[in-house]
Amino acid sequence: MKVLVFSAKNFEKEYLKNANNKKHKITFTETTLSSKSAIQAVGFDAVSIFSGDKPCGITLEKLKDFGVKYMTLRSAGYDNVNIGAASILGIKVANVPNYSPNAIAEHAVGLLLALNRKLVKANNRVKQFNFNLDNLIGFDLNNKTIGVIGTGKIGSIMVKIMHGFGCHITGFDINENSSLVDNYNLKYMPLEALCKVADIISIHVPLNTDTHHLIDENLIEIMKPGVLIINTARGAVIETSHVITGLQNKTIGGFAMDVYEKEHDIFFKDLSNTIPTDDMLIKLNVMPNVLITGHQAFLTKEALTNIAETTIYNLDCWSEGVKTENELF
Ligand code: NAI
How confident is the model at residue 225, as a pLDDT? Predict the structure, then answer.
């Protein structure tokens, strides 16, 4: 099968080449898939895309016209793809539903620890041989209450890890997982109740019409003053401007994000020599109690191996004329 990999990053090419083992004819392009760049897919049977590629109806129509029959996502989340349009056009779409949820949960915990214990600021001081400890006070996680929003694959691991820290665990999910209740004493509750009791909130729901801007000013208003919010899910689950206001009026004590609702065209690029124009990101970036990573929660060897192997597996299935269980419709 001839495959064009859009948004190919240097760090993933070797993993994909190894998993492919020369079975499919893979071409890499760093270009993001769009209605303009879709023309590059002429002559390819399949395209592979990443979370920053946003194939809208027009892009999908063009891909179909150019002969593309398959689209395999190198991500778990698929909020970026117009699934309805792909289905109508008969383009088969598959994702990587289960690549190391540990990678994401562990990154969320890393963000939490670094934010709470001000590790980045502390290390920056020490690099300059400044060993002053002023303004570096955090709090014990033991005995604090964490609210886990979304207790699916990643949220479940978050629950397990935070149970190890001695936290009281509350959760919100439309599908409750009784084993988390039994094993980790998780207490499910409505979202408003969770927001009222949680010292820490970690977000692990997919982005969909119900979760878009789920965390907004109404919820922030009822949160415990000083709450830490960690978002490794999708940027738009949070109304970012409301979080900025919450940080400014000190309702929110700290915010760590691996995802940003306007990350498209920003994340995964070196923009260090350009003048930043995104006002929300500028505001967040200068706040001392905000920690940002650029969508790297998945960036472990295990996750990259799994993403590459599942991507090639999806292509193998299609080239053999069979359905992959990772197909989205
Ligand atoms: P999952 O499907 O296993 O779990 C999602 C959970 O959210 C499910 O339990 C589901 O019932 C719940 N949920 C869905 N809609 C909801 C709603 N309206 N209200 C409450 N709960 C709702 O997904 P998984 O693997 O845990 O991933 C979660 C999200 O994490 C992905 O959708 C993706 O957006 C994000 N992600 C981020 C990565 C990163 O690098 N930062 C990498 C991988 C995933």
Answer: 98
Distance CA 165, CA 296 (A): 24
> How many CA atoms, within 13 angstroms, populate the side-chain half-sphere of residue 36?
2
Q: Could you give the residue numbers annotated as active site?
A: 234, 263, 295
Residue ranges in 264-300 assigned as alpha helix (H):
279-286
**What are the helix (H) ranges across 225-272?**
240-248
Q: Which atom of ligand 1 sits closest to the CA of residue 211?
A: 18
Which one, of 75, 77, 105, 101, lies nearest residue 310 by Cα? 75
Asked if the domains at 2-99+301-319 and 101-292 fall in one CATH topology, the answer is yes
Q: At 300, which amino acid appears?
A: T
Q: How far is the CA of 65 from the centre of ligand 1 (A)?
A: 33
CA distance 256 to 206: 18
pTM score: 0.95
Q: What is the CATH number of domain 2-99+301-319?
A: 3.40.50.720
Distance 155 CA to ligand 1 centre (A): 8
Strand order through the sheet with 70-73:
25-28, 2-5, 46-49, 70-73, 92-94
Whether 195 is in the pocket of ligand 1, judged by its Cβ within 6 Å, is no
Q: What is the DSSP letter of 79?
A: T
Question: How far away, in angstroms, is 19 Cα from ligand 1 center?
Answer: 26
CATH class given for the domain over 101-292: alpha beta
Query: Ligand 1: does its nearest atom lie under 6 Å from the Cβ of 259?
Result: yes
So where are the chain's domains?
A: 2-99+301-319, 101-292
What is the model's pLDDT at position 27? 98
pLDDT along the chain (329 residues), means of 10: 97 98 98 97 98 95 98 95 97 95 98 98 98 98 98 98 98 98 98 98 98 98 98 98 98 98 94 97 98 97 98 98 97
